[in-house]
Amino acid sequence: MKPAIAVVVLLSSLLAVSSAAEKFDFFYLVQQWPGSFCDTRQGCCFPDTGKPAADFGIHGLWPNYAKCGRGRQEELASAVLGEDDVAFLSGVGRRGKCWPEYCDDGNALSPWEIRDLVASLHRDWPTLSCKSGRSFEFWSYEWKKHGTCSNLAQHEYFARALALKARHNLTVILAGAGIVPSDTETYPLSSVRDAIARGTGFTANLECNRDADGNAQLFQVYQCVDREGNKLIDCPLSMPTKCSRDQVKLPVF
């Protein structure tokens, strides 16, 4: 095949991939333990509504691909077109991103669209970042980066995340397994994972961070959700836990 024809064929194939690039395979419903967010060297700041409850809070509902990285076509195209062109055409990116993001920058979050959810969002989706402390800015960022790729309207996006959190209360599930906040106790990571699987019926991915003294603590739980955002599924991907040992803390908040 002549080089010019090969480029045309590759371009056609990659454009076909691009047209499907905003499709995704599942959501991550990411919830974080506020004590672990705050008990670090960076610390935290409470939102404009005051200190949140000692409960897992939503970080986001993130569309994700079950498979990422480039196939043989993209590898061949990179030799002909260059990395930047392949990244633009394939939607995967030079770093092989496993998720779509910023799918519609013009679709800003409207306060009117989520007016009936604001009280629930303040309770279940608070911000602990010190950047602004204004919760609506946090929700707007999550909508712009992730929600615009979700195939859901603004109200649906937030309402479905809230409904999933309410249906599977992680704080209650872990407490039922004897895993409660403590400044002294540690828990096997496997026990945390098993408790969540028993309590929800599905496996989840876990993420740890470090407290100010360098101890591992449970930070975020990644629950996998179907493409409609309605129900949990077993996570199709594993992910690094960032835990160097099996024992983790769940610090008091």
TrEMBL record:
<dbReference type="GO" id="GO:0033897">
    <property type="term" value="F:ribonuclease T2 activity"/>
</dbReference>
<dbReference type="Pfam" id="PF00445">
    <property type="entry name" value="Ribonuclease_T2"/>
</dbReference>
<dbReference type="InterPro" id="IPR033697">
    <property type="entry name" value="Ribonuclease_T2_eukaryotic"/>
</dbReference>
<keyword id="KW-1015">Disulfide bond</keyword>
<dbReference type="GO" id="GO:0005576">
    <property type="term" value="C:extracellular region"/>
</dbReference>
<dbReference type="GO" id="GO:0006401">
    <property type="term" value="P:RNA catabolic process"/>
</dbReference>
<feature type="active site">
    <location>
        <position position="142"/>
    </location>
</feature>
<keyword id="KW-0732">Signal</keyword>
<feature type="signal peptide">
    <location>
        <begin position="1"/>
        <end position="20"/>
    </location>
</feature>
<feature type="active site">
    <location>
        <position position="59"/>
    </location>
</feature>
<comment type="similarity">
    <text>Belongs to the RNase T2 family.</text>
</comment>
<dbReference type="InterPro" id="IPR033130">
    <property type="entry name" value="RNase_T2_His_AS_2"/>
</dbReference>
<dbReference type="InterPro" id="IPR001568">
    <property type="entry name" value="RNase_T2-like"/>
</dbReference>
<dbReference type="GO" id="GO:0003723">
    <property type="term" value="F:RNA binding"/>
</dbReference>
<protein>
    <submittedName>
        <fullName>Uncharacterized protein</fullName>
    </submittedName>
</protein>
<dbReference type="InterPro" id="IPR018188">
    <property type="entry name" value="RNase_T2_His_AS_1"/>
</dbReference>
<dbReference type="InterPro" id="IPR036430">
    <property type="entry name" value="RNase_T2-like_sf"/>
</dbReference>
<feature type="active site">
    <location>
        <position position="146"/>
    </location>
</feature>
